[in-house]
Design a protein that fits this description.
Layout: H1 2-6, E1 9-18, E2 22-23, E3 50-51, H2 56-61, E4 66-68, E5 71-73, E6 83-84, E7 99-100, E8 104-118, E9 121-130, E10 137-138, E11 156-157, E12 162-170
Antiparallel strand pairs: 1-8, 2-7, 3-6, 4-5, 8-9, 9-12, 10-11
């Protein structure tokens, strides 16, 4: 009888950790006559910006989520003065993919209790917790310095915490 009460438990967990994706701050302007670096290309191939009065290491140290004026920023809008549009016919000095976007963390957990009723019958009670710590994971921010939403994070990755319970009769 004691083994029925204390036994039959199973625990499970899944951890997902990812570093951020490479980010490139862009000008959004076609300053170089190139198909892959023109203003109508996607941001991944758009022309990078020039850094002004700040080193790449200082820029990397300043990245991170923060709330200003009710909006979530990954790049502080006050840093906008640290970037400049490249001169016509030139590439920006900031390399492609030199920065790292927001990282991702999610932990899922499950607990199952199986109670044997007869030799061929049992009842299972299961509790599952998805994103158990309710961690918010941010999408990449707007990276165009000529956009009024520069640095703004407008979406999240994944879902909020979800908890579900199940009872199952096996025969």
């Amino acid at each position: 009888m004691l083994s029925q009460v204390l036994g039959g438990f199973q625990l499970g967990t899944i951890l997902r950790l990812r570093s951020g994706e490479p980010l490139t701050i862009v000008s959004g302007l076609g300053t170089l006559n190139s198909r892959l670096r023109s203003s109508n290309a996607t941001n991944a191939f758009n022309n990078t910006v020039d850094l002004v009065g700040i080193s790449l290491d200082q820029l990397r140290a300043a990245l991170g989520p923060r709330t200003l004026n009710g909006r979530i920023y990954y790049i502080d809008p006050a840093m906008l003065t640290s970037f400049a549009n490249p001169a016509p016919g030139t590439l920006g000095s900031l390399p492609h993919g030199a920065l790292t976007g927001p990282s991702f963390f999610r932990a899922d957990f499950s607990a199952l209790k199986r109670t044997r009723l007869t030799e061929h019958q049992n009842i299972e009670f299961r509790a599952e917790f998805f994103n158990i710590f309710n961690t918010v994971n941010f999408e990449n921010p707007n990276l165009n310095i000529n956009d009024p939403n520069f640095g703004v994070v407008s979406a999240i990755r994944g879902e909020p915490r979800v908890i579900q319970f199940a009872l199952r009769y096996n025969f």
